Amino acid sequence: MTGNTTKIEDPSSTDEPKKFTFDFSYWSHDGCKEEGNGYYGPDTSHANGKKFCDQMKVYNELGVGVLENAWEGYNSTLFAYGQTGSGKSWSMVGYGVNKGIVPLYCENIFKQIEEKKAGGEKTEYEVTFSMLEIYNEQIRDLLDSKTRKGGLKCRQHPKQGFYAEGLKIVPVSSYVDIEAKTEEGTRNRTVASTAMNATSSRAHTIVGITFVQKYINAAGEETAKTSIVNLVDLAGSERAESTGATGDRLKEGAAINQSLSCLGNCIAALADNAGGKKTRVPYRDSVLTKLLKNALGGNSKTIMIAALSPADINYDETLSTLRYADRAKQIKTKSSVNEDPTAQLIRELQEENERLKESNRIWKSDHNHRRR
Ligand SMILES: Nc1ncnc2c1ncn2[C@@H]1O[C@H](COP(=O)(O)OP(=O)(O)OP(=O)(O)O)[C@@H](O)[C@H]1O
């Protein structure tokens, strides 16, 4: 990785290395040292110490933007893609003191709320949390261990799009609350070990954090801004033979790959459309793509993290992840601020009223003019 370019070379071939350019290319394979508290920071004495990217750097460059968007009332989606064991959970959630984007985002949102309150702001803040997983095309509520057999239904709302019906959405008032809920959800996750990664997650996990700000606007009206942040940890896109998968594990692998290939098809169609084509986007082909529809083609600012393995045996997987990400970067989403519908309606009615008054005034002056 050099600057924002990722270069991949097949050691068993004489082909030219392939280059991919992204907004950021982060190196975290070596060049780090463990600090006293267990945090992995850059090792300045190592040749790759300068380019080593620690968790805080990723948060500062990606997470902070998500936080700023949330304050402005935009939806954001962050999803992590890549083969099993490549570091998706590491980037999104992290381990121990090496916190990933999700905990750092949560920690900071409450810190900033407290700062605003201490500064005498009258705004009311509400934060809610939900956590679900898609396992073998079924939706399980991770905050409800008694999710009925067959899972939650995926329904479509005319305005808000696809959602999981009956999903538990719990209010949270501190980072500690979120931590406890995340732990509860993680315990319920479908985790089974594969030969490649002892804690490999077998399902796609979606954490939803809603942030509502209620306040009185300049015109004295009660209004609200809402932002939904979706954090999507996709299950590994491994090949069956390298993970030693058989039986149930192999069936799961097939279901995971079906969802991921559906996601790939949607990304390819959206990328075509961004280039001016009119391709139908097959969102309905999997639960994952239904629930991610808004993130991919709707109202959301979306970030994709592609986690890569630097090992030569993973060359094919790594190249396919890079190609996946290369297509994804062509997608353009349109995001807008989520205002309270009543406040929006009042404003639209007031504007309509002004327009009617104005046309009435013109009509009256015309009428008087003709009478004279
Ligand atoms: N940048 C990193 N620095 C240090 N350790 C890392 C880094 N990235 C990943 N790891 C370690 O590698 C292992 C696998 O990472 P992780 O669990 O994040 O993979 P994953 O892509 O989420 O896998 P799966 O799809 O199977 O859940 C973990 O033990 C993690 O601590």
TrEMBL record:
Belongs to the TRAFAC class myosin-kinesin ATPase superfamily. Kinesin family. ATP binds at G82, Q83, T84, G85, S86, G87, K88, S89. One of its GO terms (biological process) is microtubule-based movement. The lineage of its organism: Eukaryota, Metazoa, Spiralia, Lophotrochozoa, Mollusca. Keywords: ATP-binding, Motor protein, Nucleotide-binding. Coiled coil: none annotated. InterPro entries: Kinesin_motor_dom, Kinesin_motor_dom_sf, P-loop_NTPase. This is Kinesin motor domain-containing protein. GO terms for molecular function: ATP binding; microtubule binding; microtubule motor activity. The keyword Hydrolase does not apply. Residues 1-331 form the Kinesin motor domain. Pfam families: Kinesin.
